Amino acid sequence: MQLTDTHAHVQMRQFTRDREAVLSRASEAGVARIICPGVDAATSKLAIDLAASRPGTIFACAGVHPHDTTGFNDATLAEIRRLATEHQEQVVAIGEIGLDFYRNLAPAEDQRRAFAAQVALARELDLPIVVHNRDAHDAIMEILRPFGTVRGVWHCFIGDRKMAEDGLSLGMYLSFAGPVTYPSNTALADVAAWAPLDRILVETDCPYLTPHPNRRDRNEPANVAKNAARVAELRGMDTADLATATNANAAALFGLPPLPADDSRKGAN
């Protein structure tokens, strides 16, 4: 069984001292591919460099997270465009972008301006978007709807079925992270059980959101297996089949080649 962790910040400082060991544990746990989003221009470049060092295994996203959008301007956007266009072999999406009205670490208007500009950039470059949505669903939908069909993913989806339906109606995917393992998240469990199989992904969002029962520990890509197992359990299906489906979905969204093991598994079925 192989898995794709569709959102892991392994380029970040939390992994500086033991990144190679973390990536080795991921490989041992069956994690065949990792999508590594940036949160600003600097971390996007770090993700690109890491992807370049591990072609076919790690892929990068370039973008500015809502927490980092204070003062977002044309120069900021130009740098994200440059990173995405000059490193097309590594960059598979624009992200992590979105709105966060829970922590409000940047002014709301700066967040809105940055999000709309980066969605437009993704459309210009024919890339999907990786969306952060925290207490900002209506505002995000207001920005996305005029674009019509949207190629993208609700990263670390934690909403209810109505929010899921809104995203799916645009053509987006839903990605499940550690919160799907938390016993109190019954609404999220309902969405994971119900969502169309061809529209779901799994991720860790490491170093954050470690799966239950180890929530105080630093998260890492190897734990995506625990999230996948929980989603499979909720859907009443085999984890290996869930892995095959989510690998195919990740390949479709991010423009990745299929994993050879998934091809052979489909042939055996």
In short:
It is built from 10 helices and 8 strands.
Major sheet attributes = 8 strands, parallel
Radius of gyration: 17 Å
> Any idea what the shape is?
globular
* Number of DSSP helical runs: 10
Order of helices and strands: EHEHEHEHEHEHEHEHHH
Provide mean pLDDT, rounded. 96
Secondary structure category: alpha/beta
First and last CA, distance: 14 Å
Assign a percent range to the helix content. Answer: 40-55%
User: What share of residues are in beta strands?
Assistant: 15-25%
User: Largest beta sheet: what is the strand line-up?
Assistant: 1-2-3-4-5-6-7-8
User: CATH superfamily membership, which one?
Assistant: Metal-dependent hydrolases
How does this structure look, described?
The protein is α/β, with parallel strands linked by helices and 269 residues long. The chain has a single domain, classed as TIM Barrel. It has 10 helices and 8 strands. Strands 1-2-3-4-5-6-7-8 form an 8-stranded parallel beta sheet. The protein starts with a strand and ends with a helix. The C terminus is likely disordered.
Topology readout:
Elements: E1 3-5, H1 19-28, E2 31-37, H2 41-53, E3 58-62, H3 74-86, E4 91-100, H4 108-125, E5 129-134, H5 137-144, E6 152-154, H6 161-170, E7 173-176, H7 186-194, E8 200-202, H8 224-235, H9 239-254, H10 260-268
Parallel strand pairs: 1-2, 2-3, 3-4, 4-5, 5-6, 6-7, 7-8
Helix pairs in contact: 2-3, 3-4, 4-5, 7-8, 8-9
What structural keywords apply?
269 residues, alpha/beta, TIM Barrel, eight-stranded parallel beta sheet, 15% strand, globular, disordered C terminus
